[in-house]
Amino acid sequence: MDDFSRSLSLAGASNFRDLGGYAGRDGRIVRWRRIFRSDHLAGLTPQDAHVLAELGLARAVDFRGRVESSALSYALPDVRYYALPIEPTVVQRAKEMAQTGQRMTEPKAVELMQDTYRAFVSDNAAQFAGLFEQLLAEDTPLVFHCTAGKDRTGFAAALILLALGVDRDVVMQDYLLTNGLYRRPESLKSSAPEEVLNVIWRVREDFLQAALQAVDRDHGGVQRYLERRLGVDEAARRRLADLYLQPYRV
After folding, report:
1. Is 7 inside any structural domain?
2. Residue of 185 and 115 predicted with greater confidence
3. Is 109 within the bounds of a domain?
4. Which domain holds residue 148?
5. Is the CB of residue 55 less than 8 Å from the CB of residue 141?
6. Residue 210 and residue 217 in contact, taking contact as beta carbons nearer than 8 Å
7. What are the pLDDT digits (tens) for 132-176?
8. How many CB atoms lie within 10 A of CB 12?
9. Domain count, the chain
10. Does residue 10 form part of some domain?
């Protein structure tokens, strides 16, 4: 029985968690304490930084857009930083609607979120390919994150787990863990109704499904998408398995 905790208790990041422990390719288990996903790391306390140092965290991949990352920058001792910016289109679309006098409703927010996830598939393959390049380069502990660690990060986590052979239902369960962990910033001020904020600041099964359906419909499935758009062919998937799945038990 593994004695690892999936969610790390950090004061400055509420959605920092481990992708280990899931059954992957050929029944092999995803290794603990190698791949982490998180919300942004700019609020980490010195004690948080000590916890991450104890884990041997060596690499951080940041999916935040340029304005987001410059507004809340961070540097962790002995952690190499890689920026793979994906601009936050939902926030921009919401601002544009407000400027033109359009009212953001719950159904419109859901539509925007689903469109955003579909755009990850079609418009941001280069960024996700960059993440896999990092994963394939070495197996030192790595964290990838965006601002809330739920959308850009959520799709990236799904791709990693699926590439490692984790079942789709389990991948979805991992994705939905955000709703029990992520704490919306208390300083956040918005005139949007609470039901709209609950769409934008939480995750829903139909969001990730929108992306995966686009992968299946437009690219012939996850494996073909990984190979043709992200450069992760069968040889690369075998290397991922060797790096991040526990060895076969004899």
Report:
1. no
2. 115
3. yes
4. 17-244
5. yes
6. no
7. 999 999 999 999 999 999 999 999 999 999 999 999 999 999 999
8. 17
9. 1
10. no
Strands (E) in 58-200, as ranges, are: 59-62, 80-83, 142-145
Locate 138 and state its tokens: 């070495």
Q: How confident is the model at residue 78 (pLDDT cuts 50, 70, 90)?
A: very high
In the chain, the amino acid numbered 96 is E
3: in domain: no
CA–CA distance, 56 with 190 (Å, rounded to integer): 38
Task: Give the CATH number, domain containing residue 25.
Answer: 3.90.190.10
Find out whether 30 and 174 touch, Cβ atoms under 8 Å: no
Q: Which tokens go with 188?
A: 């956040």
Query: HSE on the CB side for 164, CA within 13 Å?
Result: 31
Q: Catalytic site residue 146?
A: yes
Check 19, 30, 44, 146 and give the catalytic one: 146
